[in-house]
Write a structure and sequence with these properties.
The structure holds two protein chains of two kinds. Chain A is an all-alpha fold. In chain A, about 70% of the residues lie in helices and about 0% in strands. The radius of gyration of chain A is 16 Å and the shape is globular. Chain B is α+β, with helices and mostly antiparallel strands. Chain B contains six helices and 13 strands. In chain B, the strands form three sheets. In chain B, strands 4, 6, 7, 8, 11 and 13 form a six-stranded mixed sheet that branches. In chain B, strands 2, 3, 5, 9 and 10 form a five-stranded antiparallel sheet that branches. The longest helix of chain B has 24 residues. Classes of the chains: A mainly alpha, B alpha+beta.
């Protein structure tokens, strides 16, 4: 569907910016991320459906912010921050390379969307059912993804 | 029945009118509902006043148009890229052990080979800070049966069955992708592992890709390509352009020219029978 950017931003921009502010804790970075989200939506405009695009925008915003967190040098300030940066693959530790190496191995066989799923469930506190509704997967699909993620992380920790 | 706590997205979707009726009624009955909804409405007004839709829409359109133009330039490419013949004697010289191969510390393997990175790479090896648009590719090789890897120089020989580990270094946290083309014309995406767009690259020394790569029996060469750009880009047009360059080059190693929008770095591995 063709998108009226101004109308779309008027409707969904505030939600997207709040999401980016929450995840990035920096106004400039959040604004840049919000812009990236809408650009991404424009690139997918022909694949979009009319009903309830908020889930898609929220998930794209989550992915965009995780990617930005991954390359940021900001130290986590809160527990949620720490979890987010862990999922993003950036803990800012001195042995960052090893941490990234570990997380890359955790996520390497998982689709990109698994990071967003992990964020929605573990950070935002969505139930399995709510997470499934947001990302458009079945509950069993979400459960399977998270189970595989936990198994992989647990296995690597034992090395 | 209303829950004690609802995630933020549920409130957002309520305000947007995109929540199923049943969930909306439950939410309305939950504690603190009115306050949360009022807070979202207040925040909406604040955001739209601070960042007006008229001006922000222009920013979004401009960036989107720039990316689309970049994709078009990439698809068009250069008219007739120069072919670069393989200089076998030069490559052979480069491959001489002890002359050009950098000595590399061998680390103990931490597990069996699989899709995970090879042991043997040393993240501390290349901690020299890169400047400006500098970027580089690094390769490590483990021969079948070995549990350690050694660093390769460009043009080094390798055989089918060798396991290669790719790493990159970049000066700027640009967007990027790592692909390879082989002598049979096949193109393989190594990074990002999945997804249709380039990933954010990490600075600060060598970044090892999450998966190692087993060389197949394609003839002549495997050419690894690091493609970077300050802006996000789609990978498919890059693959299409590479496919075209490989076809144009015939039996020679293709010169990689993706246009001004990208910076590319290549690393050749010469296939031995």
């Amino acid at each position: 569907m063709a998108i009226d950017v101004e109308a779309y931003y008027r409707t969904y921009g505030p939600m997207v910016l709040r999401r980016c502010r929450y995840m990035l804790r920096n106004e400039d970075a959040a604004l840049d991320a919000m812009q990236d989200v809408f650009v991404e939506v424009l690139r997918r405009e022909h694949d979009l459906v009319h009903s309830a695009p908020s889930s898609l925008l929220y998930t794209i915003a989550t992915n965009v912010c995780l990617n930005r967190l991954r390359r940021s040098t900001r130290r986590p300030e809160t527990h949620d921050d720490e979890i987010l940066q862990t999922i993003a693959g950036n803990l800012g530790f001195e042995d960052e390379t090893l941490v990234n190496h570990f997380l890359d191995r955790v996520f390497s066989r998982e689709p990109e969307s698994t990071r967003a799923i992990a964020t929605l469930h573990y950070v935002d506190g969505l139930t399995l059912e709510e997470t499934a509704a947001q990302v458009g997967l079945s509950v069993s699909g979400i459960r399977k993804r998270l189970r595989a993620l936990r198994r992989r992380a647990s296995g690597l920790r034992d090395l | 029945m209303a829950k004690d706590r609802y995630p933020t997205i549920i409130y957002e979707q309520y305000v947007l009118g995109e929540l199923p009726d049943e969930v909306a009624r439950e939410l309305e009955a939950s504690q603190g509902f009115s306050q949360r909804v009022a807070e979202i409405h207040r925040s909406n007004r604040e955001i739209l006043e601070t960042y007006p839709p008229e001006s922000f829409a222009v920013r979004i359109r401009n960036q989107s148009d720039a990316l689309a133009a970049q994709d078009r330039r990439l698809l068009q490419g250069s008219a007739n890229p120069a072919r670069r013949p393989i200089h076998w004697p030069r490559l052979a010289m480069l491959a001489l052990p002890g002359a050009a191969v950098v000595a590399f510390a061998v680390m103990t393997a931490i597990g069996t080979f699989g899709p995970a990175p090879l042991p043997g790479f040393d993240p501390a090896y290349d901690q020299v800070r890169l400047k400006g648009s500098e970027q580089s590719l690094h390769l490590y090789r483990a021969v079948p049966g070995s549990t350690t890897a050694s660093r390769l120089t460009a043009g080094a020989p390798a055989r089918a069955g060798d396991r290669l580990q790719v790493a990159y270094s970049v000066a700027q946290p640009y967007y990027g992708a790592v692909l390879s083309v082989d002598g049979a014309g096949s193109i393989t995406l190594h990074y990002p592992v999945d997804g249709s767009d380039a990933s954010n690259l990490s600075t600060g020394g060598e970044q090892t890709l999450p998966r190692a790569f087993v060389l197949d029996d394609a003839p002549r060469f495997e050419l690894f390509v690091l493609v970077t750009s300050p802006s996000q880009f789609a990978i498919q047009p890059v693959k299409e352009r590479l496919r075209q360059l490989v076809a144009d080059a015939g039996t020679t190693i293709p010169a990689i020219d993706l246009g001004d929008a990208f910076t590319t770095t290549t690393f050749e591995v010469v296939k031995e029978p």
